[in-house]
Design brief:
Blueprint lengths: L11 H8 L7 E6 L12 H18 L3 E6 L1 H4 L4 H4 L8 E3 L8 H8 L7 E7 L1 H14 L3 E10 L3 H14 L2 E3 L1 H9 L5 H11 L1
Parallel strand pairs: 1-2, 1-4, 2-3, 4-5, 5-6
Length: 202
């Protein structure tokens, strides 16, 4: 576990954290509540789904473990099929707390991931509720947090933006899907990038 940063926006530690390159061996991808009944009213939902798919594909190529959550699936449905199809063998953790860190089952799975996974990559919805609360929980637990701004959203554009602002103020690095993927892949000559490239061009 990494050292928790205090007052990250006002200390050199926050800038140092943002400068630190993403290392696949230290990352885990969290796919938060991309569910059938939640998705239809989401702002720019097609972009969210496509970019979540890209992150999941990249995680698979780089052997980055992915954890998936659903919020009260009995009422809100399961993970949307186009996302679930890329996560075969990964059972979602169903929860009622908005934060994934409010779920003992989720926290247990996270702690059991192989290697030293001290950096969490976040995508999903809603930006201002479950994603923000999960990011804040992760930061309190000492994780480094990167949020793909174009792979999270909310029902309204204003709530999507204010969620990102709150996470940034708390110490999360606000990134984008391509920024994460290209940083993780490192080089256009890598086998991983060549495998990923057809999906990026799509």
């Amino acid at each position: 576990m990494v050292t928790t940063f205090e007052n990250p926006t006002t200390t050199p530690d926050y800038a140092e954290m943002a400068r630190r390159p993403l290392e696949p061996d230290h990352c885990a991808l969290l796919v938060i509540d991309i569910q059938e009944k939640l998705l239809p009213p989401i702002f720019q939902r097609d972009q969210l789904v496509r970019n979540a798919q890209l992150l999941i594909r990249a995680a698979g190529i780089l052997r980055i473990p992915a954890l998936v959550s659903t919020q009260y699936s009995k009422g809100l449905g399961g993970t949307v099929p186009e996302v679930a199809a890329l996560l075969a063998g990964t059972d979602p953790v169903d929860k009622t707390p908005f934060s994934c860190f409010g779920s003992d089952a989720f926290c247990s799975l996270l702690k059991r991931l192989p290697g030293q996974r001290n950096t969490l990559l976040l995508c999903g919805m809603e930006s201002h509720i479950c994603v923000t609360q999960t990011a804040l929980g992760a930061l309190r637990e000492g994780y480094l947090v990167h949020v793909a701004s174009d792979a999270v959203s909310s029902r309204t554009e204003s709530n999507w933006k204010i969620g990102l602002e709150r996470m940034r103020a708390a110490g999360a690095v606000i990134s984008s899907t391509e920024m994460m993927i290209y940083e993780l892949m490192r080089s256009s000559s890598s086998a991983a990038f060549k495998e990923m490239l057809p999906h990026l061009k799509g």
